[in-house]
Design a protein that fits this description.
Distance between the termini: 99 Å
Shape: rod-shaped
Number of strands: 0
Radius of gyration: 33 Å
Low-confidence stretches: none
Strand content: under 5%
Largest sheet: none
Helix content: 55-70%
Structural class: mainly alpha
Order of helices and strands: HHHHH
Mean pLDDT: 91
């Protein structure tokens, strides 16, 4: 016999692949996730920017001059915003207009400080406390209407 002793050696396992560089499928997953995150951030930025523009536009009511002019400007902006929900809403008058402004959230216009919108534009003087209360709820409702909330 030529070689009576056979030398046995362990099985050599190949080195496991490293995690870098990533396989092409993982690059696609990362790219899709990055695009999704970037899209969400861009959408939120645009919504925030649009909301701030609406706020600045409504807040310009304070520059209208007298209190009666401010009430008239508030009413005009609310009517423009109401057209986003209902194209005929700007033609509503009196109690129907106030009920539309109330929406589903209460009676701030029909029974609260928002009643100032009915005749505040025609008064000689509007108390500043009444104007401030009406402005606060009108601003909130304006932003809701612009956002499309009934």
């Amino acid at each position: 016999m030529i070689g009576s002793t056979l030398v046995l050696r362990d099985v050599h396992v190949p080195v496991s692949p490293s995690w870098w560089p990533l396989a092409p499928g993982w690059w696609l997953v990362l790219a899709a996730a990055s695009l999704l995150i970037a899209g969400i951030l861009a959408w939120r930025f645009a919504v925030r920017r649009r909301r701030l523009a609406w706020q600045r536009w409504f807040d310009a009511v304070g520059e209208a001059g007298s209190a009666t002019e401010q009430v008239a400007a508030m009413s005009e902006r609310l009517r423009r915003a109401a057209r986003r929900l209902d194209p005929t809403a700007d033609r509503l008058e009196g109690e129907a207009w106030l009920r539309f402004l109330d929406g589903k959230r209460g009676h701030a216009f029909s029974q609260g400080p928002g009643r100032l919108l009915l005749d505040g534009g025609y008064r000689r003087e509007v108390p500043s406390a009444e104007l401030a209360a009406a402005t606060a709820i009108a601003r909130a409702r304006f932003l809701e209407l612009m956002a499309g909330v009934r």
